[in-house]
Structure formats: C-alpha cells, structure tokens
Task: inverse folding
C-alpha cells in the first residue's frame, strides 16, 4: 500500500550541480505530475504526464526536465541547479478516468546553496 | 486564467468550535474541486472531492459544499479538535471536456485549534 513514493526526502546541492528527484507510484495511474511549493506562492505545476511516453509543461517548467518511460515512474531532473530552485517538490498521481482524487507523495525538500 | 483564493490565510479557534474555511475560484468551468490537508513538513492528504454536478460531500466531521455558479466552496469542520490543526488547501480541476486537467491550488488556510 505504498501509493506515491518520492526519494530522496532531503537534499542539499551546490549551484550548478545536477540531480534527479525520483517518483514512483504503484496504483497504475496514467496521470502523474510534479509541483513545487514555496512560501506565499502555493503549489505550482512544473511538468505533467498523461501516460508513458507523453509529457507536457506546466506553469513553471524552466530549469526542469522530465521523462516517462514507464507507467510507474516519473523522474524530475535539474540539469544545473540554481538557488531559485530551492523548494519543496511534490509528485502526484491519479487515474485518467472519472472523478478520482489526486494522490501526493511526502515531498522532497531541496536546498541549493 | 483560473485563480483560486482561500480566506482567511490563518485561523485560530478554541477546541470544540465549529468552523468554516472558504475557497473561491474565478472560472466556473470546473471538473471537480478537492480539499486537502497538509501537516507541517508532510505531503498533501485528500479529504474530500466534490464533482461539478454535486452540491456537497461529507466525511465524518467534515462537510464540503460547492456552489459552482458563484465560484465558491466551503469546508465545514464540526467540533474542532487540536488534531485538526494543519493547513487546508483547496484545488480545482478545470473542465477541458474530459477527465484530464491539472489541479490549480489556493494558497491554503493555516488552522490552529487551541486546547
């Protein structure tokens, strides 16, 4: 009964470093998305995917890449980290059909120095 | 562009009080509306989902209402408890003619229930 699993939970990077935030779900959900949460800004959509092999940009995509090679996994890549990317990142998933709730992971807290 | 607003940003009440959290949205073309709870340092937990054709949903001490025409939703919490202290987030899924659509969030109401 894992739901949406995000790793790592915490990470500190230096400016210019790269890293991948992992997200996996075991509910066979077609739809997955990445949000960032910043104080005073609420949650903002970074990228999303409606199925394996299909991704699209959200509200704040710059500086982030995604891919969806399997239904289960949706990693988020920071190619060259910047201090402005210090945030809490949440991965979410839901079925692509009907009125079903969106499920969220516990988040990755990322600090970039 | 759809915008979601939650008022107040913070609320402090004594234990046992009934309370209402407010959520408003600018575009009535929504597929559904979802209320979440977020504890400090944690992820989001779905509380209630109201379909666009529904007026309200209930779960235990929680009752959420939806008035699509006026662009408003309320979350009613009965007999509040200190364990209800958390940030409550409202999110709408726009209606794009199908089941797709990304959630658009309000900034949340931080609730504190004092013993």
Result:
């Amino acid at each position: 009964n894992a739901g949406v699993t995000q790793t790592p939970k915490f990470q500190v990077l230096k400016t210019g470093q790269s890293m991948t935030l992992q997200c996996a779900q075991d509910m066979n959900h077609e739809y997955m998305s990445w949000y960032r949460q910043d104080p005073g800004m609420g949650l903002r959509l970074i990228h999303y995917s409606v199925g394996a092999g299909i991704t699209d940009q959200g509200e704040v995509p710059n500086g982030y890449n995604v891919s969806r090679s399997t239904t289960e996994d949706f990693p988020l890549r920071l190619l060259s980290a910047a201090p402005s990317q210090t945030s809490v990142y949440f991965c979410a998933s839901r079925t692509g059909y009907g009125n079903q709730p969106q499920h969220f992971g516990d988040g990755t807290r990322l600090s970039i120095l | 562009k759809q915008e979601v607003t939650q008022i107040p940003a913070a609320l402090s009440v004594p234990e046992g009080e009934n309370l209402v959290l407010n959520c408003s949205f600018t575009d009535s073309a929504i597929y559904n509306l979802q209320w979440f709870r977020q504890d400090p340092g944690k992820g989001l937990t779905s509380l209630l989902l109201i379909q666009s054709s529904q007026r309200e949903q209930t779960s235990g001490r929680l009752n959420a209402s939806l008035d699509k025409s006026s662009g408003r939703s309320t979350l009613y919490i009965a007999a509040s408890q200190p364990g209800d202290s958390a940030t409550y987030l409202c999110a709408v899924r726009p209606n794009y003619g199908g089941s797709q659509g990304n959630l658009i969030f309000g900034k949340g109401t931080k609730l504190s229930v004092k013993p």
User: Anything to note?
Assistant: The first strand of chain B starts at residue 4 and ends at 7. The interface with chain A takes residues 31-32, 34, 36, 41-46, 49, 51, 89, 91, 99-100, 102-103, 105-108 of chain B (CB under 8 Å). DSSP finds no helices and eleven strands in chain B. Chain B has a mean pLDDT of 93.
